[in-house]
Amino acid sequence: MAFLNKEVKKEFPEGFLWGGAVAANQCEGAYLEDGKQMSTADIKARGFFGGLRRDADYYPTHKAIDFYHTYKSDLKLMAEANFNIFRTSINWARIYPTGEEETPNQKGLDFYHDMFKYCHELGMKVMVTISHYETPLYLVDTYGGWDNRKFIEFYMKFVRTIVDNLDDVVDYWLTFNEIGNAAVKPICWDAACIYPDSENLLQRMYQAAHHQFVASALAVKYIHQHSNHAKVGAMIAYKTVYPYTCNPKDVIAAEKEKRKEYFFSDVQVRGKYPDYIWQYFEENNIKITFEEGDEEIIASYPVDFITFSYYRSRVVSSEETEAAEKIIDTNTLEGIVNPYLPKTGWGWSVDPDGLMLALQDLYDRYQKPLFISENGLGAIDTVEEGNVINDDYRIDYMRKHVQAMQRAIEKGVDLFGYTMWGPIDIVSNGTGQMSKRYGIIYVDLDDEGNGTGNRYLKKSYNWYKTVIGTNGKDLGIE
């Protein structure tokens, strides 16, 4: 009899990808420059949940941090922090300004090709999110949201163009950012281009999600056929879910919420609608229109790997536990307060153990390579004399989440990369603020866009540089 003992991984694997992630609409600015027209992000007003408006006095995405003009110096700072991967998106309205053009905007293609080529020159791989809340506004005004099937072909025209022109400088493609948000009311505008106050909202959101599943599969098909190197991944928003108590009814409620999250990765990874979703559709009178060939396309072209954002966990209860008084401000999307966890200044729970559980659960469920494409701490930073920013709170947050990643790797999870959100201060998508800062690089701009725009290195910059340089061995623990 022979015994098989497999060595347990104790460290981050050789070649692990470390870097940072941004979205084009939150950093580039130049919103009408070089042929670009308005995207859906460009009508989000400033301030804390400023909302969708056509008459606001200031839109933070219009200027953002001017990355469109400063990308070389900004990327150089990231490379000097030992980044070996950079994740960003392509602003659809910079390639097809209205979405209906037959010929793409060459200046837009040139901009992204130059940027991605420069990343490679600096030693960074490139991960591109094809659709990251940047749909041409004209398409939405003319055709509605993603529940209109016409969006599949508009999207595929965009995909074919960027793959044909940029694949030589792109290493990884992601089809949609946080695809599950297409069916989450507060942010369905971002993901599905549907106004949150629309009639028949739940029906529209899930029909939109179906069209994105088809579009994602078609994108995987096209990239696999036209690239000899690139891999294609899913990108989901993941929040570890806990029951409020050990009351079985709470546990059942938590499992129900988990399935609502898993639905989106189940379809993209397993290639079919899971059996459990049909009961949910029946309970909510949701009727998904499938056209001939949809099931075959979804089944034939699943993603190669899974990426996800992780910022916080959630607590769920059933009505029987009468936990309504525990609900906090719904603007945070937090739900019931977890008394065992600290919170950020914006009310988000800080739960690195939840990240370890997320990695275990996703890998156990799918056995696909995983990549953490967003994780970070939004906080108010203070600039001290000499432009010093001592953000020890960010270092503490990141250190604990890196340790959680390492524990997951020890438990057998195949994790191949991590891009913090966001390496440089950018406009918050959720609140339209610059003061909600995630970066290890400070940008001197306030919530009204005032300031020098100068970049300063925070204390966390040198900490993260050391972490990457030692492949996670030195976390600055004395």
UniProtKB/TrEMBL annotation:
Top-level taxonomic group: Bacteria
One Gene Ontology MF term: beta-glucosidase activity
Keywords assigned by UniProt, alphabetized: Glycosidase, Hydrolase
GO biological process annotation, one example: carbohydrate catabolic process
Gene Ontology CC terms: cytosol
Catalytic residues, chain numbering: 374 (nucleophile)
Gene3D superfamilies referenced in this protein's UniProt entry, alphabetically: Glycosidases
A Pfam family hit: Glyco_hydro_1
Record family assignment: Belongs to the glycosyl hydrolase 1 family.
Protein name from the UniProt record: 6-phospho-beta-glucosidase
Source organism per UniProt: Faecalibacillus faecis
